[in-house]
Design goal:
Blueprint (H helix, E strand, L loop, with lengths): L2 H6 L28 H7 L5 H15 L6 E9 L3 E9 L5 E10 L17 H12 L11 E6 L3 E7 L5 H11 L9 E6 L4 E5 L6 H11 L1 E2 L4 E2 L4 H20 L2 E2 L8 E5 L2 H9 L9 E5 L6 E2 L19 H5 L6 H18 L2 H7 L2 H5 L12 H12 L10 H5 L6
Parallel strand pairs: 1-7
Antiparallel strand pairs: 1-2, 2-3, 3-5, 4-5, 6-7, 8-9, 10-13, 11-12
Helix pairs in contact: 5-6, 7-10
């Protein structure tokens, strides 16, 4: 079996139909209330992530001044541990800076049973502080830029650059052109009458998953139901840029610990060009993008090894909780390489580049000498790269530097 085919066995491919966007929650929402998990378990059903996000914002606006000094625009994402707001920060000089405010939940953020205003700082904030210090605020271009942080009795507040395009809004534009509708529904806005704030509410649409979904929809033929693959040159850029950021992080003595499509933000640099392409019914990758690695909640020092992984499905073969409990050292940098290899495999398997090459893959085997890099076909280079990244043995697996300097990126 060709090694690239073998590497595909590491993942389960699930085709995405343009008409199947993730459904939004339509459940009724209670008024602002406690998110104390112990009381929730004892007295009421456990809150959904959407309810927790709404409660956190309402609590912050009602009981604290932590969001004063910002103009809040919209909720751009939420999860089990926090909610992200797109906002503007107003400086003493009168300038306005676009920022993202991530409200990170404390275990007890109830108005009746608050935590303190001096709780231990979450790992994600400590990591971004350390990156900013080490980089002397000239950060690597693919690591999300830290601005500031603070806390009150209810939450931690992490302020970073605002980054990422609303790819799902572009999906809706594309499908409207074709007279199609998505099955996703808009979430009700958050209204806080006391502060006169109304926020558009979204469950996140700026990540790599949303970008790939947009590309599939933008090049979808409603007559045949078929869609072109992801643009190969953009896939290569994304993988290379993420690799470069992780290489920098590893050089600082840290590993990320949760590399996946949801933790890579993507923005269109020339948005006007992209919008015009969408209006004529296709994107075809004729635009420029930039990426940022985000969500450093599982980042640790490389010297400690991996103790917990962010997403078990992306963990390397050598990781298990029992192994860690027995003192087995799991190299976090090599774990990042493996997770990036899984992400790269998914992207390449969905790309037009891969679709064109796979037809002649077996025939190429007899035409390329084993182990010869110079003159290797694109397919053989991809095969060599992914085989090195997804090697089961961590000692034999590529380092991030080997990935970054691989001939496929030339």
């Amino acid at each position: 079996m060709h090694r690239f085919k073998a590497s595909m066995s590491h993942i389960n491919m699930h085709p995405i139909s343009p008409a199947n966007t993730p459904p939004a929650s339509n459940e009724s929402l209670p008024a602002p209330q406690t998110t104390d998990t112990r009381r929730a378990k004892r007295d009421q059903p456990v809150l959904t992530t959407e309810q927790k996000a709404r409660n956190a914002i309402n609590n912050a606006l009602t009981y604290t001044t932590s969001l004063d000094g910002y103009t809040l625009h919209s909720v751009v994402g939420f999860g089990a541990n926090g909610v992200v707001i797109a906002a503007e920060q107003h400086t003493p000089q009168g300038a306005s800076i676009p920022v993202a405010i991530k409200i990170i939940y404390k275990p007890n953020n109830s108005p009746k049973q608050p935590s303190t205003a001096s709780d231990p700082t979450p790992n994600e904030i400590l990591t971004l502080r350390a990156i900013a210090r080490a980089s002397n605020r000239q950060q690597h271009p693919t690591l999300l830029r830290y601005i500031s942080d603070h806390q009150d009795a209810f939450h931690f507040y992490l302020v970073t650059e605002l980054f990422g395009s609303d790819w799902l809004a572009l999906v809706r534009s594309v499908l409207n052109i074709h007279g199609q509708k998505t099955n996703s529904q808009s979430l009700p806005p958050l209204v806080h009458r006391g502060k006169g704030v109304t926020l558009r509410f979204s469950n996140g649409s700026a990540d790599l998953w949303a970008w790939s979904y947009f590309e599939r929809c933008a090049n979808w033929d409603p007559a045949t139901g078929e869609t072109a693959g992801l643009p190969g040159h953009l896939v290569k850029k994304i993988i290379g840029d993420v690799c470069s950021g992780l290489h920098h992080l590893h050089a600082l003595g840290m590993y990320h610990g949760d590399i996946k499509s949801e933790n890579i933000l993507v923005t269109a640099v020339n948005k006007d060009s992209l919008t015009s392409e969408v209006q004529v019914g296709g994107a075809q990758g004729d635009y420029h993008i930039e990426v940022r690695i985000c969500d450093f909640g599982h980042t640790e020092s490389r010297s400690t090894g991996v103790r917990n992984v962010g997403t078990l499905d992306h963990a390397p073969p050598e990781y298990s909780k029992s192994a860690v409990q027995q003192g087995v050292f799991v190299d976090g940098a090599k774990a990042d390489v493996y997770a990036l290899g899984l992400m790269a495999t998914r992207l390449l398997a969905s790309s037009g580049m891969f679709s064109e090459m796979v037809v002649d893959m077996d025939n190429m085997l007899g035409m390329v000498r084993d182990g010869v890099i110079e003159g290797m076909s694109e397919l053989e280079l991809v095969d060599d790269l992914l085989t090195g990244m997804l090697c089961d043995e961590p000692e034999a697996r590529f380092s991030m530097e080997q990935v970054l300097t691989h001939p496929w990126f030339d």
